[in-house]
Amino acid sequence: MDRFRLGLVLHPTRDVSPVVGTIVAWAAEHHAALTVREQDRHRVPEAVRAVPEGELASGSDMLIAIGGDGTMLGALRMAVRDPKPVLGVHLGKLGFLVEVEPPELPAALARLLTGEYTLEAHSCLACTVCGDDVVAFNDIALVRHPGQGFVSATLAVDGQQYGYYRCDAVVVCTPTGSTAYSYAAGGPLISPATRAVVVTPSAPMAGISRSVVLSPEETVRLDLRPGSGPVSVEVDGRVIRNRSTTGAVEVHYRHDAGLVVRLDPRRHQERNQLKLGLLDLPLLPEQLRELLPESLRRQLGRREEPHR
Predict the structure, then answer these.
(1) Does the annotation flag 166 for ligand binding?
(2) pLDDT 10s digits, 57-99
(3) Residue 158 annotated to the active site
(4) Is 236 labelled as part of a ligand binding site?
(5) E strands along the chain, which residues?
(6) pLDDT tens digits for 198-248?
(7) Is 69 among the annotated ligand-binding positions?
(8) Staple partner for 97: which of 12, 72, 131, 180, CB 3.0–4.6 Å?
(9) To 5 degrees, how large is the angle CA 69–CA 72–CA 75?
(10) Which parts of 151-229 fold into alpha helices (H)?
């Protein structure tokens, strides 16, 4: 019987050692093989084999992303050419993609072996940015530099000009990405079960001032206009092009480009609904705490006490 192969994708700065330790102990007990990117070799025990980044997904049966949504998106992008299931272990502050908390990890790993999980398919945006091909699972955004003018760009759909933007940013997102940058810019929430592309301007000054929801079969093209301020292009929050004043971004929708492991889809959906509700409350964390029952506040206080 072939060994179960797990590829580990680590948050770039957070301490992942407790979670990695749990996985290494489990892998030794169940004779599973573990790999990590070469640049993360120093962050894992010797039992984890290091491979080039391009081989991590192809050489794994499944990926485990340890971090937040950004780490999860990175794992999905790694596997976009040959989608592999990705399980997210949450180390972030507010994640919509990740499902498993560290204390739940041993039970989650056991279910991976027995196949007691479902796979949630995710779309992506296949983008051409000034001739370079990139993919985005959340969004691609054209963002202005403060104090150096505004984003000024025309919108074309399937080659037909629709108007122009003059704004702080233009965000093109998937349904999954509708809870991220687009949501912060005032865009609509799109059900993950829907296939659509949403284009949303942030702080529009002139031109198109509302979100546009398009069919996945339509091609979106944004061309910088003469006189636009310098623009950065962000893909899933990563800057891939900086201070451009000319050029174009073309976006195509690609369905079933990523696979996310879901152990309890209903519970995950309820958690996300709660997180979205909290985002709309203009309260600080300590104010939110006061809304909790006294017994739960005491329980949280004990958890936060320093270990002696």
Answers:
(1) yes
(2) 999 999 999 999 999 999 999 999 999 999 999 997 667 788 8
(3) no
(4) no
(5) 5-10, 33-37, 49-51, 62-67, 85-90, 118-129, 132-136, 139-144, 151-157, 160-167, 169-173, 197-202, 206-207, 212-214, 220-224, 231-235, 238-244, 248-262
(6) 999 999 999 999 999 999 999 999 999 999 999 999 999 999 999 999 999
(7) yes
(8) 72
(9) 155
(10) 181-184
Report the C-alpha gap between 115 and 111 in whole angstroms: 6
According to DSSP, the β-strands at 212-214 and 220-224 are unpaired
40 is in an annotated binding site: no
- Kindly give, in sequence order, each residue whose CB lies less than 8 Å from that of residue 154, ignoring residues fewer than 6 positions away: 161, 163, 164, 165, 222, 223, 225
In the structure encoding, which two tokens stand for residue 108, read together?
Answer: 């989650």
Distance CA(94)–CA(240), nearest Å, equals 24
How many angstroms separate the CA atoms of 210 and 176, rounded?
19
For residue 308, what pLDDT band results from cuts at 50, 70 and 90?
very low
The pLDDT of residue 47 is above 70: yes
| Residues whose CB falls within 8 Å of the CB of residue 135, separated by 6 or more in sequence, listed in order | 77, 80, 124, 125, 126, 127, 235, 254, 257
pLDDT tens readout for residues 22-43: 999 999 999 999 999 999 999 9
Residue 101, CA atoms < 13 Å, CB-side half-sphere: 6
138 labeled part of a ligand binding site: yes
d(CA 257, CA 62): 15
Q: Give me the catalytic one of 69, 132, 133, 158.
A: 69
